[in-house]
């Protein structure tokens, strides 16, 4: 059986989904590197037993893996799009701004046999910021397993957003305007679910009204309960390579409220509410409008994800790219 060295730096829903999808057809050798320090001897040992490398994001954790893979004549597939291809100096986000991180990401991307990205928005960003055309990068949308088919629906007057709470995400994910919007809707419960990485949560608490809850880290089962209870899911981001949490919430029949940032409109389509800016009053108005749409809007959101972003489509797509890399096909 073909052995895939699976390289990633964060344990997230999307990396878990891709690993499970690859494991249906290949033997997986895991290489998890959460920090900046590489482990070259461990990588070499694993590469000797691997036939192909599959990496998530062009950053320090995939840099050495893909260089060694190329030296050892192992093909590789790299998923890019998001922080590694973004350039947003106005909010201090993206590896394509300048400096060593830009060089690392570009060299890693150049070392890959095949490249995957997750949205048309990311394709356009890759072309604009790296000069890579669509013939070099394969678009394969995320696919989301349906965890909510048999789950009871609560549909409380709750607005939910999910994301790691740290200083950058106050603006990038729109966490600050989400929390500030709660003052305009005192009869709605606002929930920000996500691990706290720094003191940004204290800054949010300072502006939060009593109807805001900060959950901290949640296990998957508890998070799914919140998805099932909330009537509205809010993602007032300034950048999104895809917006997987939005799609998960839509599967759970939440009505999405989003900005027109990155790939969010590709995910939401005409099933939710779009606001012009990630600003507190606009977030509040978007939530108010979403609550007025009723249960049918949540059902339409669910149908869109089932039709456009099925798990099987993602699984088959990334497995084809692995096979193409093994066959020496380089765009």
In short, what is this structure?
The chain is of the alpha/beta class and 331 residues long.
Helix and strand topology:
Blueprint: E1 3-8, H1 13-23, E2 27-32, H2 40-49, E3 52-56, H3 60-71, E4 76-79, H4 99-111, E5 114-117, H5 120-130, E6 137-139, E7 156-162, H6 167-172, H7 175-181, E8 189-193, H8 200-207, E9 212-216, H9 220-229, E10 230-235, H10 244-251, E11 255-259, H11 264-268, E12 273-275, H12 280-293, H13 295-308, H14 311-326
Parallel strand pairs: 1-2, 1-3, 3-4, 4-5, 5-6, 7-8, 7-10, 8-9, 10-11, 11-12
Helix pairs in contact: 1-14, 2-3, 3-4, 7-12, 10-13
Q: Given this structure, which CATH class of the largest domain is correct?
A: Alpha Beta
Task: Tell the overall outline.
Answer: globular
* Number of spatially distinct domains: 2
CATH superfamily annotation of the largest domain: Glycogen Phosphorylase B
The CATH topology of the largest domain comes to: Rossmann fold
Total number of strands: 12
Structural class: alpha/beta
Average predicted local confidence, pLDDT: 95
In DSSP terms, counting alpha (H) and pi (I) runs of 4 or more, how many helices?
14
| Helix-strand sequence | EHEHEHEHEHEEHHEHEHEHEHEHHH
Could you give a short account of the major beta sheet?
6 strands, parallel
Calculate the terminal CA-CA distance, rounded to whole Å. 25 Å
Query: What portion of residues is helical?
Result: 40-55%
Poorly predicted spans: none
Strand content: 15-25%
What is the CA-atom radius of gyration, in angstroms?
A: 20 Å
CATH-derived architecture of the largest domain: 3-Layer(aba) Sandwich
Strand order of the largest sheet: 2-1-3-4-5-6
């Amino acid at each position: 059986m073909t052995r895939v060295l699976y390289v990633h730096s964060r344990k997230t829903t999307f990396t878990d989904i891709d690993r499970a999808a690859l494991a249906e057809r290949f033997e997986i050798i895991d290489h998890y590197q959460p920090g900046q320090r590489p482990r070259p001897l461990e990588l070499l040992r694993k590469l000797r037993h691997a036939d192909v490398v599959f990496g998530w994001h062009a950053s320090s954790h995939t840099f050495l893996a893909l260089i060694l893979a190329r030296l050892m004549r192992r093909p590789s597939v790299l998923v890019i799009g998001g922080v590694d291809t973004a350039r947003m100096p106005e909010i201090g986000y993206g590896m394509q701004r300048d400096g060593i991180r830009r060089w690392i990401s570009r060299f890693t991307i150049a070392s890959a046999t095949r490249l995957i990205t997750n949205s048309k928005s990311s394709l356009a960003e890759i072309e604009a910021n790296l000069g890579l055309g669509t013939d070099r990068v394969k678009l394969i949308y995320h696919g989301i397993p349906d965890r909510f088919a048999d789950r009871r629906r609560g549909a409380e007057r709750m607005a939910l957003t999910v994301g790691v709470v740290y200083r950058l995400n106050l603006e990038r994910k729109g966490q600050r305007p989400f929390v500030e919007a709660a003052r305009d809707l005192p009869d709605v419960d606002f929930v920000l679910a996500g691990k706290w990485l720094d003191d940004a949560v204290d800054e949010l608490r300072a502006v939060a009204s009593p109807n805001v809850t900060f959950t901290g880290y949640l296990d998957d089962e508890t998070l799914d309960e919140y998805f099932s209870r909330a009537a509205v899911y809010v993602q007032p981001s300034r950048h999104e390579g895809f917006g997987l949490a939005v799609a998960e919430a839509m599967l759970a029949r939440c009505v999405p409220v989003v900005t027109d940032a990155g790939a969010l409109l590709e995910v939401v389509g005409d099933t939710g509410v779009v606001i012009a800016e990630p600003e507190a009053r606009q977030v509040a108005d978007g939530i108010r409008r979403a609550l007025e749409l009723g249960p049918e809007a949540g059902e339409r959101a669910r149908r869109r994800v089932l039709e456009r972003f099925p798990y099987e489509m993602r699984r088959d797509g990334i497995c084809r790219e692995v096979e193409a890399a093994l066959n020496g096909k380089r765009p």
